[in-house]
Design goal:
Length: 113
């Protein structure tokens, strides 16, 4: 479950904690039904860069700092070579349009269970 304030945005989500889970991410998926929550090992920019090579769906990337506050929310198209965020510790790869649909913006605090 992932939400903002008292509002639940998604009832289900997948998680990527291990190196292999983070490496694969949403690659090869033709549809993104549940968001994927990534846990990075340290707050960084370059080390937490992502790509969408072999991703066949456009998705929203929501980067969060150690306080789970949004530091960047962008839409990523398939086969994008590199997205380098501001220093972040978490990432949510969400279905396309989620940022707009839920009004997610920089500074919002996200929670999950």
């Amino acid at each position: 479950m992932i939400g903002i304030g008292k509002k639940t945005l998604w009832k289900k989500h997948d998680e990527a904690r291990s190196f292999n889970e983070k490496l694969k991410g949403i690659m090869f998926k033709k549809k993104l039904e549940n968001p994927m929550l990534f846990f990075f090992s340290k707050k960084a920019s370059l080390e937490n860069s992502i790509h969408s090579l072999f991703c066949f769906v456009t998705f929203d990337a929501i980067f969060l700092d150690e306080g789970k506050k949004v530091v960047q929310a962008i839409t990523v198209k398939p086969f994008t070579l590199n997205v380098t965020p501001p220093p972040s510790l978490y990432l949510i790869e969400a279905p396309q349009g989620s940022v707009k649909k839920y009004g997610i913006k920089k500074g919002d605090k996200i929670w999950w269970k």
